[in-house]
């Protein structure tokens, strides 16, 4: 499985960004596609995930502001980020995920894309 993320950058607080992730290879229908992020000195954090049936999951800190979607024909996953805050600053990674023992497992990850929210 290969994943290629794009769309990061610098944005002012309150602004929006849209990340894209093109993926290739075989992904189990039991898997989720989505995003996690990691800021310096902080633990990896689930941002959003979407399952094959369209079921979505969001991290508590982004729920209501971020939206994950997918276009299976294009084999692309998107993350629309609105009302961005400085604390959203992190490297965002696209990943194929699964759940084991109630914990998210990041089975495959692409290279990250930097998102910086600053005035």
Description:
There is one protein chain. The protein is mostly beta strands and about 120 residues long. It has no helices and 11 strands. It has strands spanning about 1-5, 10, 15-25, 30-40, 45-50, 55-60, 65-70, 75-80, 90-100, 105-110, 115. It is globular. The relative contact order is 0.32. The model has no long low-confidence stretch (mean pLDDT about 95).
* Approximate strand percentage: over 45%
Cα-to-Cα separation, first versus last residue: 37 Å
Mean pLDDT: 94
Shape: globular
Q: What oligomerization state is this entry in?
A: single chain
- Continuous helix count: 0
SSE map:
Elements: E1 2-6, E2 9-11, E3 17-24, E4 32-38, E5 45-51, E6 56-58, E7 66-71, E8 76-81, E9 90-100, E10 103-109, E11 113-117
Parallel strand pairs: 2-11
Antiparallel strand pairs: 1-3, 3-8, 4-5, 4-9, 5-6, 7-8, 9-10, 9-11
Keywords:
119 residues; single chain; 11 strands; 57% strand
Task: Please give a quick description of this structure.
With 119 residues, this protein is mostly beta strands.
């Amino acid at each position: 499985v290969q994943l290629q993320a794009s769309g990061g950058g610098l944005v002012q607080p309150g602004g929006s960004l849209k990340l894209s992730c093109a993926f290739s290879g075989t992904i189990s229908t039991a898997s989720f596609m989505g995003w996690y992020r990691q800021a310096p000195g902080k633990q990896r954090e689930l941002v959003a995930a979407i399952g094959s049936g369209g079921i979505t999951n969001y991290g508590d800190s982004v729920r209501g502001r971020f939206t994950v979607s997918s276009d299976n024909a294009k084999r692309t996953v998107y993350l629309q980020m609105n009302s961005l805050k400085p604390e959203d600053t992190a490297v965002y990674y696209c990943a194929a995920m699964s759940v084991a023992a109630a914990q998210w497992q990041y089975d495959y990850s692409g290279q990250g894309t930097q998102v910086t929210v600053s005035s």
